[in-house]
Amino acid sequence: MARAPTPPAELSDIQLVDNVLQGAPGAIDAFYHRHSRLIYHCIRSRTGGQDVDDIFQAFFERLLKTGFRPLQLWQRGSSLPVYLSSVVRNFVTDFHRSKRMREEAVGGTMELEPLSGAEAETITATTHLKELRHIGIRAWAVLEARDRRLVCDRLHRDLDNETIANRLKLSVGALRTAMSRAQARYLAQVRQLAPEFFPDKA
After folding, report:
1. What span, in angstroms and rounded, lies between the C-alpha atoms of 127 and 26?
2. 91 contacts 100 by C-beta, under 8 angstroms
3. pTM over cut 0.70
4. What is residue 193's three-state secondary structure?
């Protein structure tokens, strides 16, 4: 008789991290629910509340894009919360350093010439894109585990269909159907969270 999987809440941090790195269903969701509060408060304590949401979003985007590489470097047996706090502190430092470099590259706080219409539109579009990225993370977090994995593999890891199909033990045709449905559900969540970006067609 097959042994029932251990509920996520009962997994040790070592088991949880191993599941995340192996791509086990629901593992990323379990990691997020267990450690996101710690990560958020660590960012907040390092920034005094400034840019917390942006840094929090950027941190998880980096984890996804790197295949959770910081977890690969974690020394088993040491405290995961302590290690994550160190990783977050370094990330916050890098985030602020990069932000300062960008500001200095465009003249810092010096007075700027009035923006042309095209320049203003570009800044507005950039602001909207930033808002949509934040909304995208929130929409991704409420998807079912399988949909979340499909969206992550396609949009964040940029894997091809054959690779994703092999990871999920699906045919390419079955994957296309599953991917299409997952992306439709993802877009529906985004539309629900940000209807102002998707006005009804006339």
Report:
1. 32
2. no
3. no
4. helix
Q: What is the DSSP letter of 76?
A: B
Q: What is the rounded CA–CA span in Å between residue 150 and residue 165?
A: 10
- Tokens 């994550």 locate to 84
What's the confidence (pLDDT) of residue 116?
Answer: 44
- In the predicted model, residues of the chain with pLDDT beneath 50 are 1-2, 4, 108-128, 201-202
- Residue 1 has, within 13 A of its CA and on its CB side, a CA count of 1
SS3 of residue 20 by DSSP = helix
CATH number of 9-105: 1.10.1740.10
CATH code 1.10.1740.10 region(s) in the chain: 9-105
Fold that domain 138-202 belongs to in CATH: Arc Repressor Mutant, subunit A (1.10.10)
C-alpha span between 52 and 68 (Å, rounded): 21
pLDDT value, residue 18: 94
Q: Where in the chain is the domain with CATH 1.10.10?
A: 138-202
Integer Cα distance of 187 and 194 in angstroms: 10
The two tokens of residue 36 are 């996101």
CB 38 within 8 A of CB 83: no
Q: Which of 33, 12, 23 has its CA nearest to residue 142?
A: 33
